[in-house]
Amino acid sequence: MSATAEAPATADPTAGEPFSERLKAATWGDHATAEQHGFTEALLAGELPRAGYTEMVAQHYFAYVALERVGRALREDPVAGRFHYPELERVPALEADLEHLLGTGWRERISPAPATRTYVARIEQMADHPAGFVAHHYTRYMGDVSGGQFIRRIAAKAYGLTADAGVAFYVFDALGSLPKFRSGYRDRLDSLDLDEATAEFLVRETRLAYQLNTEVLADLGRQQA
Q1: 175 neighbors 88 (Cβ within 8 angstroms)
Q2: Counting beta carbons within 10 angstroms of the beta carbon of residue 76, is it exposed (0 to 12), middle (13 to 18) or buried (19 or more)?
Q3: Which long-range contacts (CB under 8 A, 24 or more apart) does 143-152 make?
Q4: Contact partners, residue 63, CB within 8 Å, separation at least 6
Q5: What is the structure's pLDDT at 7?
Q6: What span, in angstroms and rounded, lies between the C-alpha atoms of 215 and 36?
Q7: So what's the pLDDT on residue 213?
Q8: pLDDT at 15
Q9: Where are the alpha helices (DSSP H) in the chain?
Q10: Nearest to 212 by CA among 129, 93, 143, 116
Q11: pLDDT for the residue numbered 225
């Protein structure tokens, strides 16, 4: 080889890797941080007071109103529109849960915490960044149809919630098989036609989404202290 020949390019460690696997690997630590938060640990242990659970449902409401509004606005987008699942929408279920937990005047009894306002503002910005919207969609809904099913059982037992009243948020009967849905969702991630800059942005935004969610948990934890 001549002295002026170019050295072989360094191999891209993500080359050929399904994007869903890349996303999962890149965000695993952020996901674990959220799961290991004190508020989450109390919830999963069935030790969180009912008031704490109710406040979590309230904060979810503000986040999902924003997420689903942006999702509807982007439903024709070639990237974000692939993740427009009307059957996933959670706002009606959250409204039903809040009415069960707080009564008919629930709207006057809830307000977004500071961290939730920051989170909502970021979601709303994604109306101009479709790949970023996918990051927030993935972070929330894939968690809901995975670990959320465990939370559903714990909350129902801990707070005496029956017939899904108060835990309707976690009921996804319209999706059919949840493992099949999750597999199909990953297939959609893998089939996205993204250049490297956009793919990296989606990964970074997913990490930010986890961070914003963890900050909401911290706000909730301070309220329970």
Answers
A1: yes
A2: exposed
A3: 144/90, 144/169, 144/170, 144/172, 145/172, 145/175, 145/178, 145/181, 145/182, 146/178, 146/182, 147/35, 149/178, 150/44, 151/43, 151/44
A4: 116, 119, 120, 123, 140, 216
A5: 37
A6: 13
A7: 94
A8: 54
A9: 19-35, 38-44, 50-73, 91-102, 114-125, 130-144, 148-158, 178-190, 196-224
A10: 116
A11: 66
CA Rg value for the chain: 19
Our CA angle for 210, 214, 215, nearest 5°, is: 120
Q: Which residue has the tokens 């948990």?
A: 217
Cα–Cα dist 100/168, whole Å: 10
At 143, list the tokens. Answer: 């968690």
pLDDT at 103: 97
CA dihedral 106, 90, 217, 183 (to 10 degrees): 170
CA distance linking residue 29 with residue 83, whole number of Å: 24
Low-confidence ranges of the chain (pLDDT < 50): 1-14
Give the pLDDT score at 108: 97
The string of DSSP letters for 139-157 reads HHHHHHTTTHHHHHHHHHH
From the CB of residue 27, how many other CB atoms can be counted at a distance below 10 Å? 20
pLDDT in tens, 70-102: 999 999 999 999 999 999 999 999 999 999 999
